[in-house]
Structures are given as structure tokens and as C-alpha cells.
Design brief:
With 418 residues, the protein is α+β, with helices and mostly antiparallel strands. The protein folds into three domains: 112 residues, Immunoglobulins (Immunoglobulin-like), CATH 2.60.40.10; 194 residues, no CATH class; 62 residues, no CATH class. The chain is built from eight helices and 17 strands. Strand 8 and strand 9 form a beta hairpin. The protein is elongated. It binds calcium ion (2 copies). The site of one calcium ion (CA) has 7 residues, from loops.
Length: 418
């Protein structure tokens, strides 16, 4: 009996010891900072977010949202404070930077009120029980220390670095903003290049950077009446590649070393996913006027003749670099010098209604050599779905056209994007 009692006492003291190490008092009904209670189950070291640059490694730790007051990293006896970088779902994320890049033993100290919680390989309330973590960057990381921190940029609404190239109409094209019967498209383009758009184009203006995004401008209401809710996509802010270049220092402050930019190819829209000409950078993202003084919008004439005003035909030997194309090369060179890589959207799954092959199909119907590039459907209403002209174009055969040409590019297009 005495033996059993001793055993029971030993068990009891073991349980009690376990309790003080791992469990706390009953959890509060509401999570708060400074209440001396920490929700351990939510705490995790997010090693996948480790990021290293020349002078150190950034580490990320998550806790329960609005639960802990302080988080620090202790590495080789030195403290590194972590700061909150935001909340997502039920979690709050903390980031801190240690000066080591490759090797180092460390643990986290998470405090709230009088309570401190130590996180190494395991969590503990006892600082003597810490099993330190090893810095898993460099030799151990899959990318061998060359971490990428991506920054996604929608060029049109990022920063206006060149006011001279600001768009004077939106994706619905110049036709939507003028009515002079005696001005043909080629003339309009010429005039625009010569910087006299206001006289001709009338009511168009860029959306305000600090305005209400939900406020519709004249052309947006017009588009809404014709196309419904897609009107919102017609906003234009005037951002450009020069605006991206102007912010290189800003990227460096945040250790961003990869930019993922929206499509920069020639198109009237802000997204530039409906590309008119894949060979060229859009003038409103580069330069509006050639070094020779000519407007780059002469490119539009590609659709009305075999050659455009730059003398380019479909044969590769005739293709030229516009000043925007040359600038894009310089732009990439400047970013490369700063060790910043560029990934660009390239939207092949549909094109502008002004894309040469689509125009050719509209003109020549089944006789067009590009007939098979597009999805074409029977349509009893004899309308063409061209997506960006309020006039519409008469269909030769009374068929419905879709601009997608994934049909001819299956090897470049993931199945999910069909
Ligand atoms: Ca708390
Ligand atoms: Ca601009």
C-alpha cells in the first residue's frame, strides 16, 4: 500500500511538471495582446519564406492574430527583434533579419504579458529546454541561397514615369472618341503622334490616381452601356515602364529581386492582354514618338494594308525596332545591373480585334489563311463578337467569331487556361 502511494505521488508530480511545461490556464474567451496567454498551437516558423540577400537572412514566424506582444530571434547569443508585417486569416506574421546568411543556430522568443515561449526544434516555456534550429538557407535550401522575392506590377496603375506617352483613348480605340467624318484612322494616328489630341479627341482624360475607383468617367459609362460590367476594365492611369524604372531604389529597399510585370505589348488597353502587335512594346508604356519624329501609332495601319507605315510586313526581315522596343531593352539592362529579373505576362489566349489575323478573317471569311486560328461559331443574329468596337463589323458569312487563337498554340498553353 505504501509502495502504491509513493508511485501515485511520483506520477502526480510528473504530471504536474508536464502541466507547467506545456499547458497553461484555461484559454481566454477572446484573443488579446498583453493578457499573458499565448495560443501555442498557432505558432509556426515559416521556413519556406526564408529569404537571403547580401547582408543577412529574413525569417518569418506566424502566431495567432492579435495574440503576442513581442517576438525576437536569438542567434549565437544575439537578439534580433521581429516586427509584425500583417495578418492573414487567423494568423499574424512577424519578420526579422539576422546578419547571417548560411550557418547559425537560433531560436525564437515569443512574449505576451509576463509569459515567454521559446521555439526551437520544439516549443517550451523553459528556456533551458531549447533545442536550437539551424539556419536553413544556402546549402540546404533548394534554390541554393539565390532566393527570389517577386513583386507583381500592373504597369498602367503602378507609376506614371513619362507624361508624354499618356494614353489619349482607352481600349475602345480612337474611333470612340471622335466624330469628325473627314478624319480617317491613319490621319487620327498621325495627329495624335504630333501631340494635338485634345482638339480631336475631346472628352477623354486619365483616371485619377487618388480618385474613387468606383467612380465612372465618361468613356466608362459609355462602355458600360454597351458592354455591361466590363466597363471597369477600361480605366487608364498613365503608368508606364519608365515608372517601373523610376522605382528601382524602392524595390531594393524591400530586397525585391524579381518583377512580374503585366503584358507590355502593343495594345490600347491597360492590361494589354488583348494584343494588337506582339512584335512591339506599347508606345503608351514606352515612347509615343520615334526618334525620327514619327508617331508609333502608325503601326495601326498594319491592318489596312500588307505593310504598315514602318514598312513591316509579315516577313521577319522587315521587322524593325521602334523607340519603345529599344527602350524596353535598356529597361531590362538597367534592372539586370541591379540584379533584378523580369518576368512578363504574355497573353496568347486571345488577341485584340485589331490583330492582323483577326482583321484578315473578318475581311476574307473562310478564304482567310488564318480562318483556323480562331474559334468560329454559327450565330443566328449575324453578329461578330469583336469585343472592342461599338460599331461592330459585318460578318462575311454571318458567323460568330471568338478572338482566341489557342487553337494554333496548344503547345504553349496550359490546358487549364483554355
Ligand atoms: Ca495573448
Ligand atoms: Ca505615362
Amino acid at each position: 500500500m505504501k509502495k502504491l502511494l509513493v508511485l501515485a505521488l511520483v506520477l502526480l508530480s510528473a504530471c504536474k511538471n508536464l502541466e507547467t511545461t506545456i499547458d497553461q490556464i484555461a484559454p481566454p474567451s477572446k484573443t488579446s495582446k498583453g493578457d499573458g496567454y499565448i495560443f501555442f498551437d498557432y505558432i509556426a516558423y515559416e521556413q519556406r519564406y526564408n529569404f537571403n540577400d547580401k547582408d543577412g537572412t529574413r525569417l518569418v514566424l506566424k502566431t495567432r492574430k492579435q495574440d503576442v506582444q513581442k517576438v525576437k530571434i536569438v542567434m549565437d547569443g544575439k537578439d534580433y527583434e521581429m516586427h509584425s508585417i500583417g495578418e492573414m486569416g487567423e494568423f499574424e506574421y512577424f519578420e526579422g533579419k539576422v546578419t547571417k546568411i548560411k550557418e547559425g543556430k537560433f531560436h525564437f522568443v515569443i512574449s505576451d504579458g509576463n509569459l515567454a515561449y521559446y521555439l526551437g526544434e520544439k516549443g517550451s516555456l523553459n528556456s533551458r529546454e531549447i533545442e536550437p534550429l539551424e539556419l536553413a538557407i544556402g546549402e540546404k535550401s533548394e534554390n541554393n541561397g539565390d532566393s527570389k522575392l517577386w513583386y507583381r506590377i500592373y504597369i498602367d496603375s503602378f507609376y506614371n514615369g513619362n507624361k508624354d506617352n499618356d494614353p489619349v483613348f482607352n481600349e475602345y480605340g480612337p474611333e470612340s472618341f471622335l466624330k469628325p467624318e473627314d478624319t480617317n484612322k491613319a490621319q487620327l494616328v498621325e495627329d495624335w503622334g504630333n501631340n494635338i489630341p485634345k482638339k480631336i479627341l475631346g472628352k477623354f482624360q486619365l483616371n485619377s490616381w487618388i480618385g474613387d475607383f468606383n467612380e465612372n468617367y465618361f468613356w466608362e459609362n459609355k462602355a458600360k452601356n454597351i458592354y455591361g460590367e466590363s466597363y471597369a476594365g477600361t480605366k487608364r492611369f498613365g503608368g508606364d515602364l519608365q515608372g517601373v524604372e523610376a522605382k528601382i531604389d524602392y524595390f531594393k529597399v524591400f530586397s525585391i529581386n524579381t518583377l512580374w510585370i503585366s503584358s507590355p505589348f502593343y495594345s490600347f488597353s491597360g492590361s494589354k492582354n488583348d494584343v494588337i502587335d506582339f512584335r512591339h512594346i506599347s508606345p503608351d508604356y514606352g515612347m509615343l514618338v520615334e526618334k525620327s519624329g514619327e508617331s508609333q501609332y502608325k503601326l495601326l495601319n498594319l491592318n489596312s494594308s500588307e505593310k504598315n507605315s514602318f514598312g513591316e510586313s509579315l516577313s521577319v526581315e522587315t521587322w524593325k525596332n521602334t523607340s519603345s522596343d529599344e527602350y524596353f531593352r535598356e529597361f531590362l539592362g538597367k534592372l539586370d545591373k541591379e540584379n533584378i529579373k523580369v518576368i512578363s505576362d504574355l497573353s496568347f489566349d486571345y488577341v485584340s480585334s485589331r490583330f492582323f489575323a483577326f482583321e484578315d478573317v473578318l475581311r476574307n471569311g473562310k478564304d482567310s489563311i488564318y480562318w483556323n486560328w480562331f474559334f468560329i461559331e454559327e450565330n443566328s443574329e449575324d453578329k461578330i463578337f469583336n469585343g472592342s468596337s461599338d460599331k461592330g463589323v459585318e460578318s462575311k458569312e454571318g458567323l460568330r467569331y471568338r478572338k482566341s487563337f489557342v487553337k494554333v498554340l496548344p503547345e504553349y498553353t496550359a490546358e487549364e487556361s483554355f
